[in-house]
Design goal:
The complex is a heterodimer of chains A (394) and B (558). Chain A is an alpha+beta fold and 394 residues long.
């Protein structure tokens, strides 16, 4: 199997120069002049259209998927700043990448997913390896989107679905998604990877439950209105100080997440599935997936040691699966809650380096920090928060 | 980590005890929840503080780095570029521009010397043409203590239009403006740091007490010192370069003067050698010829009769012998007799005369030159008839040279021409030129001496030419032939003799008259010496006249 990848990076402030620099670096490292497919992750300080145009120009207008992130990841380095861009280029004779996008997540995520499915036609691909999706981190309804994307497949779990949600700089004001020449919001871009290859992925979160078990007593899709028959916001306030109650939600919600009991098939994963609360309004808090009344959960918080040990275990699992082979494609989707908000810079870099070396020292690694992550667990395509998703193709 | 679960309040036997346990557990849980809440709050604050500390630490480390880097730079443009990049990349402001007095622009105007954060073509075009007046009211905010101007997004414009003007000029909606490179007479530059509204949320915000104020102020202070030092260094370098050039020029001048002096010494030495030889030659004749003549004369004893004055020559003593003629007594006298050839003697005497005349000319040349060189020659301006002048010259040449075996022809103007000048000196010029022509024209050759009117009605000139068909002058000698002590052949085996002063004297005398002299020549074909003299010395001419290149028609310009 021939699959060549190269990763480039830039922190130049000028969007045109940043895009050009990262793209050319990627092509140079791959040793190619033109790419078959391009992945682009960038932070939101850039004028997104200018950045995308320069990457497209440098990569010969190859098909492109990507999104904005709070930070970007490459080999041995993490950059959580407002000005960082990572480009990954792919060239292969045996593996193909194709993409499609649609908007309208907040209006009807299912319909949006179907539009993508109709364009991508992945249901017709006998050799589909995986779908890689990037969606709006503020308006995401994962379950509905997944239903729509998989509506022509035999099940929502027919093809592994990995990826993450676009993010911004913790302001929760605007995230961006990229498909070819287009920058858009409130949508999703999905890439179909097909061909003869092996794919390995895994996920870990690092949260531990705190306090009493709670029950969702009233909910509408992904809005939680009541917990234990009390207004949801009132219950959540029990976990906050006076200053936090009065302060910005974007600061508060870093430290709290909902931990829903994981189904049995996720035994090897963890006891809980974590759900971040990116937004609130006057009556409810939002979670990225639909939640049913009666769902039991705990409030959770991130645990330093659990994150570190989880990273290492996941890396070792993938390494074991690779059996000494070097992955040709290595994607890391990391929740922003696992970055600089919990780790000092040197510690963060060290964790990353240890993990990367545990998987493979030679792999071309790229990734970003997201508001939410997608990855199958136990064969079931799932949404995660405060998690790490690794995907390797060999 | 264990989960904390409240025990439910299930009433069983011993309910009183169980109730108390349940209450205790509830209270314990509440306390734990409070602790968790405080823990999370502390964690949040700790994170914020830690991030702040890390940022500050990084900033100050980078400040130290850039300080070291700035100290190694000597170009203003390089320093400014590094500064603006540092402010944008390290302090995380969107835009930074350094404004300095432009070298080519009008004074009193600050132009953008370096900028960062302007990436679109229209932004770049705007920033590179932005001008801020040095007397802008905004700059008056800069106090003696280097106070800066801070305009954040909440700022209500207290300066009227000026703050808005700065915002528009430099495409920012919030900014700091720091003085840079203060001079005694006012602000020589400043640094602008700021953000646009669209990008502000991604950048460090402008605030009077912002986190970046102290490091930014430190950076600006350091930049001011660096730029002032570089200016001083550059000024010193310019002065040094200027002095180097001046020294080199002066050295070159001295070297040229030394060469000229050495050349003059050499020429004078050569001249002395020539003159010595020239003087010795006729002197030899003047000294030796009389000696040879004297050899033909001897004293003899002659006996003279006291009575009849008859003379008798005898080798014996005849003083006692009577006169054979009259018998008178004889007395002895000594008489000088010439035993040589009279025609030979005449030839010798002519030779002495010629050599003496030649010697006289040589001495006159030297004396004339000395007088002209020392500025002691005063022209005696009198009306001169050109016809008469040429006639006098012709006569003098005939008397001094005699039959030269060359044909000398004199052409006078068709009509009588009157001019003003020193006739003696002009005659001297023409005689020098004719003597030279004779010297360098072989027997049978011809020499033409012409005089004509030239110039214009306003500036009439008398144009003289002395043309020969002699040996000619090499082209490389034409430029130097009028220089003192120069002869066409400077070698010691020169054939033609002379002091080499004649042409130099001629040139100086012509130029004293306000005229100009030149020469045209071709080897083997002869030479033409030309000079023009203004007819009327009252006319204003540049002194001397440009050297004539050809004879100008009467009444017209050359």
């Amino acid at each position: 199997m021939s699959l060549i990848t190269g990763v480039g990076f830039s922190t130049h402030r000028n969007p045109r120069q940043a895009g050009m620099e990262a793209a050319k670096q990627a092509l140079e490292k791959a040793g190619i002049e033109e790419a078959d497919f391009v992945f682009l992750f960038a932070t939101v300080g850039y004028k997104q259209e200018s950045l995308l145009a320069s990457v497209r120009e440098a990569t010969g207008n190859a098909p492109l998927s990507g999104c904005s992130g709070e930070g970007v990841i490459i080999n041995g380095e993490v950059h959580e700043t407002n000005f960082g861009v990572v480009v990954s280029v792919v060239k292969s004779d045996e593996i193909t990448f194709s993409n499609a996008h649609a908007v309208g997540m907040s209006k009807d995520a299912d319909a949006m997913g179907r539009e993508i499915a109709d364009a991508l036609k992945h249901h017709e691909a006998d050799d589909a390896l995986t779908l890689i999706g990037f969606a709006d981190g503020l308006t995401l309804n994962f379950d509905a989107m997944l239903r729509g994307v998989m509506y022509r497949c035999e099940s929502v779990n027919a093809i592994p679905f990995v990826g993450g949600t676009a993010s911004d700089d913790w302001s929760f004001s605007a995230t961006y998604q990229y498909c070819n020449d287009t920058v858009f919001q409130d949508g999703a871009v999905v890439t179909l990877v097909r061909g003869e290859a092996e794919i390995y992925n895994g996920s870990r979160h690092g949260c531990v439950p705190i306090g009493d078990e709670r029950t969702v007593t009233k909910a509408e899709a992904n809005r939680i209105l009541e917990i234990d028959n009390r207004p949801a916001l009132e219950v959540i306030d029990e976990y906050l100080t006076v200053e936090e109650k009065q302060g910005e939600w974007s600061t508060t919600n870093v430290y709290l997440a909902i931990g829903v009991k994981a189904p049995e098939y996720m035994n090897k994963y963890d006891d809980y599935l974590i759900r971040f609360m990116p937004m609130r309004d006057n009556d409810a808090v939002y979670v990225p997936t639909e939640i049913q009344p009666g769902t039991k959960f705990y409030m959770t918080r991130r645990d330093h040691d659990k994150i570190a040990s989880g990273n290492q275990r996941l890396a070792e699992e993938i390494h074991e699966g690779l059996k000494g082979r070097v992955p040709r494609f290595m994607l890391q989707i990391e929740c922003i809650g696992r970055g600089k908000v919990i780790f000092e810079d040197s510690e963060k870099q060290k964790l990353l380096k240890n993990m990367q070396e545990a998987v493979s020292k030679e792999a071309n690694w790229f990734g970003l920090y997201t508001y939410g992550e997608f990855g199958p667990v136990g064969g079931v395509n799932s949404f995660h928060n405060y998690s790490l998703i690794l995907t390797a193709i060999v | 980590m264990e989960k904390f679960t409240l025990k439910t309040n299930i009433r069983e036997d011993g309910d009183d005890v169980a109730d108390k346990d349940a209450d205790a557990l509830r209270n314990e849980n509440q306390n734990l929840r409070n602790q968790v809440r405080l823990l999370m709050a502390a964690e949040s604050k700790l994170y914020t503080l830690q991030e702040h500390l890390n940022n500050q630490q990084q900033i100050y480390a980078r400040l130290a780095d850039i300080g070291r880097q700035l100290n190694t730079l000597l170009k203003i443009d390089e320093i400014c570029k590094i500064l603006v990049q540092f402010v944008v990349y390290e302090f995380n402001f969107e835009r930074c521009a350094i404004l300095l007095h432009g070298k080519s622009g009008p004074s009193g105007v600050l132009l953008v010397n370096a900028h960062e954060g302007y990436y679109e073509n229209d932004e770049i075009a705007a920033i590179e043409t932005a001008k801020l007046q040095s007397d802008s009211p905004a700059l008056k905010e800069f106090g003696e203590d280097g106070r800066h101007l801070c305009v954040n997004s909440e700022h209500e414009c207290a300066h009227g239009c000026e703050t808005c003007n700065i915002k528009q000029l430099y495409l920012v909606d919030e900014f700091y403006l720091f003085p840079l490179m203060r001079k005694e007479e006012g602000i020589a530059g400043c640094i602008l740091v700021g953000n646009s509204k669209q990008q502000a949320r991604y950048q460090t915000r402008v605030a009077p007490d912002g986190d970046m104020m102290v490091p930014l102020t430190n950076l600006v202070r350091q930049a001011s010192i660096t730029l002032a030092n570089v200016n001083s260094y550059n000024a010193l370098e310019e002065e040094r370069a200027r002095l180097d050039i001046a020294v080199a020029e002066r050295t070159q001048e001295l070297s040229t003067a030394l060469d000229a002096a050495n050349e003059a010494v050499r020429l004078k030495g050569e001249f002395l050698a020539k003159v010595s030889h020239e003087l010795r030659t006729p002197l030899n004749s003047i000294v030796n010829v009389p000696k040879a003549l004297a050899a033909d004369y001897r004293l003899i004893d002659v006996y003279v009769c006291q009575n009849c004055s008859a003379e008798f020559q005898s080798d014996d003593d005849e003083s006692a012998t009577p006169c054979p003629e009259c018998g008178g007594s004889l007395s002895m006298e000594q008489v000088t007799v010439c035993e040589g050839d009279a025609s030979e003697h005449l030839r010798f005497l002519n030779l002495v005369q010629q050599q003496g005349t030649h010697l006289l000319h040589l001495v006159e040349d030297v004396l004339n030159f000395s007088r002209v060189e020392s500025g002691k020659v005063k022209l005696d301006y009198q009306p001169i008839s050109v016809h008469h002048l040429l006639h006098e010259v012709e006569q003098t040449i005939l008397l001094s040279i005699g039959n030269t075996a060359r044909c000398i022809r004199y052409s006078k103007p068709d009509v009588e021409v009157q001019m003003f000048g020193d006739e003696t000196r002009l005659k001297q010029v023409l005689i020098n030129l004719i003597n030279n022509a004779v010297k360098f024209t072989s027997h049978g050759g011809s020499i033409d001496v012409c005089a004509s009117v030239a110039g214009s009605e306003i500036n009439p000139l008398v144009h003289f030419e002395v043309a020969d068909n002699g040996i000619g002058i090499p082209s490389e000698q034409l430029d130097v032939i009028f220089e003192s002590f120069r002869q066409v052949d400077g070698s010691s085996t020169r054939i033609y003799g002379g002091t080499g002063l004649g042409l130099s004297i001629a040139k100086q005398l012509v130029e004293l008259h306000g005229g100009g002299i030149s020469v045209k020549s071709e080897i083997g074909k002869g030479s033409v010496f030309l000079f023009d003299i203004p007819m009327n010395p009252a006319q204003t001419f540049p002194s001397p006249l440009p050297a004539p290149t050809e004879k100008s028609p009467e009444g017209g310009d050359a």
